[in-house]
Design goal:
Layout (H helix, E strand, L loop, with lengths): L25 H16 L4 E3 L9 E4 L11 E12 L2 E6 L7 E6 L2 E7 L5 E7 H14 L10 H19 L2
Antiparallel strand pairs: 1-2, 2-3, 3-6, 4-5, 6-7
Bound molecules: nickel (II) ion.
């Protein structure tokens, strides 16, 4: 396993549309392991393959709190088949370090995907898990949280990420 570099906005690779996974090969399994290690090291609650420059339709989520045992969920070729209601949540993203923003999402979703063994499953989610699923699923289409906010907040978010990068570079 290896910790991979997380791409930051405005890296053009974050805009690439990910391709479906045809088969869960050993390479795909290794990619999932790398994604998990990278997400936990960040730390973050979700990571899409496109965020480490791998254009495959895979994302992972673990919304367990620090006191709870880890609860890694792997979604391969996910499809959100039901969206219902609305909710606002203060979201962050590992590709937007230093920036959070309130974003409107569906309150409940049903997602269909393959697990890491290549078996189909369907999951109904609400609250934070539903938000995370929608956020990560967006990444696979090259859609980022900045696309869900108005022009003023867009500029603010871009500036926050840029400032964060400059601080890091000067350390
Ligand atoms: Ni994100």
């Amino acid at each position: 396993m290896a910790i991979r570099t997380i791409l930051h906005y405005p890296d053009p690779k974050l805009r690439e549309k990910a391709q479906p996974v045809e088969r869960v090969t050993p390479e795909i399994s290794k990619l999932i392991d790398d994604m998990a290690e990278t997400m936990y090291a960040a730390p973050g609650v979700g990571l899409a393959a496109t965020q480490i420059g791998e254009p495959h339709r895979i994302f992972i989520i673990d919304i367990a709190s620090e006191e709870e045992p880890s609860d890694l969920r792997v979604f391969i070729n996910p499809e959100i088949v039901v969206r219902d209601g609305t909710q606002m949540w203060e979201e962050g993203c590992l590709s937007f370090p230093g920036a959070t923003e309130e974003i409107k999402r569906a309150e409940r979703v049903t997602v269909r995907a393959l697990d890491r063994d290549g078996k189909t499953f369907e999951l109904q989610a609400d609250g934070l898990l539903a938000v995370a699923i929608q956020h990560e699923n967006d990444h696979l289409d090259g859609v980022l949280m900045i696309d869900h906010v108005g022009p003023l907040k867009k500029r603010l978010m871009a500036r926050k990420v840029q400032k964060h990068g400059e601080r890091r570079a000067s350390r």
